[in-house]
Write a structure and sequence with these properties.
alpha+beta, Toxin ADP-ribosyltransferase, Chain A, domain 1, 2 domains, four-stranded mixed beta sheet, 29% helix, elongated
C-alpha cells in the first residue's frame, strides 16, 4: 500500500506521526507560548527541529495555531518541541508515516554537547553496573583537583590574612545577603537599592538591633551594607593570582548576562552539573565553559561548598565564542588578565576612589 500523500500544515492531524522537515531559515516561531525570553526560546525550538530533520515526530497537542510534538531520536531518546506554520518555509508539506516507521539513509544524530551537563541523578542507566561504571570514570571533583598545589597554597595563605570584617563579608556573600552587591559595584544609587528588601532591613533606619539605633529619618548612617562592601572589596583586591589555568563553568539565564565587562566578580563553579542548574537548561541561553588564564585573581571557599564556587575577580577580559552554532546556548569563554595602564600608583588611586564611592553610596543608608 503506497504511503499517504504529503499534506500542508493546515491538514496535520493530532496523534499522527510525520517526518520532521527542515525548518525555516528564520526562527519565527510566533506562537511560543510560555517563553520567558521569546528570542532564546525560539532559538531552542529551531535547534531541536534542525537536529531531528528526517526523523519521526508525533503530534501530541494543538493550540490555536501551533502544535506540541515529540521528536524521536535513534536510540529511543525523545525531545518536546513547539512549532507553528511560520516555523517552516512557505508551502511546506508534511509526510505522514506509521508509528513504527524508521528513518532510512539519515546520518546518525551527532552527540548533543548538552549531555555532559546532565546530572547523574537524571540519567537513565541500563543497569546498576552501568551506573557504578559511570561514577568510577567520573568521580566528583574537589578543589584540589582544579587548583594547582601552588595556587591552593596561595589561597590558604590569603585566607590566613583575612580580618574579621572581611570574613564577615565573604560569609555574607555565601548566604542570602549578596543580592545588592551587583548594584553597588555597578555604582547604582541608594534609591535603587531601596527595592532590595535585605538592604533596607540592614540599615540603621530599619534595624531592630538596639545596638544600632537609627540616627534620624533624614540620615540613617552607615549600616551593614557599608561594612559588607568595604570588607568585600578590600578582601578581593588582595586575592591571589592563578599561576596555572583552570576550567570552570557558569550557568546563566538570558543573553543579557553575557555582557561580561571584567569589572565585577564572576561567580563560577568547577562542578558542571551545579552550574547547569543556574542555566536556561538544555538548548537555551546559556551554559558557559570558561577557561581562566594565569594572572587572573581568584577566590574559593575551603571545606564543604555545595556550589563548588570559584570567584573570578576583576580586572580581566572575557572573550566569548559560540559552541555548536549561535542558537545552541553553549558558549566558550576565555578569561585573560588585564593590567591598569597607569601602573601601581594609578591602581592605588582607583582603589581609594572606589572606596570613597562606596562610602558615599551608603552614607544615606
Amino acid at each position: 500500500m503506497p504511503p499517504p500523500a504529503p499534506v500542508p500544515f493546515s491538514q496535520l492531524k493530532l496523534y499522527t506521526h510525520y517526518i520532521v522537515p527542515a525548518p525555516s531559515d528564520e526562527a519565527r516561531f510566533f506562537t511560543a507560548t510560555f517563553a520567558r525570553n521569546s528570542d532564546e526560546y525560539l532559538k531552542k525550538q529551531r535547534r531541536l527541529l534542525l537536529r531531528y530533520v528526517g526523523r519521526k515526530m508525533h503530534l501530541l497537542d494543538r493550540g490555536e495555531t501551533s502544535f506540541h510534538a515529540q521528536l524521536y531520536g535513534d536510540g529511543g531518546e525523545r525531545e518536546d518541541v513547539y512549532f507553528d506554520e511560520t516555523s517552516f518555509p512557505p508551502g511546506q508539506m508534511f509526510q505522514e508515516v506509521n508509528w513504527d516507521w524508521k528513518p532510512v539513509g539519515v546520518a546518525p544524530l551527532p552527540p548533543d554537547p548538552w549531555d555532559e551537563f546532565i546530572s547523574p541523578l537524571e540519567m537513565d542507566f541500563a543497569s546498576d553496573a552501568a551506573e557504578k561504571e559511570y561514577h568510577k570514570k567520573n568521580p566528583p571533583l574537589k578543589l584540589r583537583n582544579v587548583l594547582s598545589p601552588v595556587d591552593l597554597a596561595a589561597l590558604n595563605q590569603f585566607q590566613s590574612t583575612l580580618n574579621p570584617a572581611e570574613f564577615k563579608a565573604l560569609d555574607a556573600y555565601k548566604g542570602d545577603h549578596h543580592s545588592f552587591m551587583g548594584p553597588l559595584m555597578l555604582g547604582l544609587t541608594e534609591e535603587s537599592l531601596g527595592v532590595v528588601d535585605y538592604a533596607r532591613k540592614q540599615t540603621r533606619a530599619d534595624s531592630k538591633d538596639p545596638a544600632r539605633p537609627p540616627l534620624s529619618k533624614e540620615r540613617t548612617g552607615p549600616g551593614f551594607i557599608r561594612e559588607f562592601m568595604t570588607g568585600f572589596l578590600t578582601a578581593l583586591s588582595r586575592a591571589p593570582k592563578l599561576t596555572q589555568e583552570i576550567n570552570v563553568f557558569r550557568g546563566i539565564t538570558g543573553k543579557e548576562a553575557l555582557n561580561i565587562d571584567g569589572t565585577l566578580a564572576l561567580s563560577t563553579s568547577y562542578d558542571k552539573h551545579v552550574a547547569y542548574t543556574f542555566s536556561g537548561k538544555r538548548g537555551a541561553c546559556c551554559m558557559l565553559k570558561i577557561n581562566v588564564k594565569p594572572g587572573v585573581r581568584f577566590f574559593a571557599w575551603r571545606g564543604l561548598d555545595p556550589e563548588s564556587e570559584i570567584m573570578v575577580l576583576p580586572p580581566y577580559k572575557a572573550l566569548i565564542e559560540d559552541i555548536d552554532g549561535p542558537d545552541s546556548g553553549l558558549k566558550k569563554v576565555t578569561i585573560i588578565p588585564v593590567r591598569y595602564r597607569a601602573g601601581t600608583r594609578g591602581l592605588r588611586t582607583r582603589r581609594r576612589r572606589r572606596l570613597r564611592q562606596t562610602k558615599k553610596l551608603t552614607s544615606k543608608l
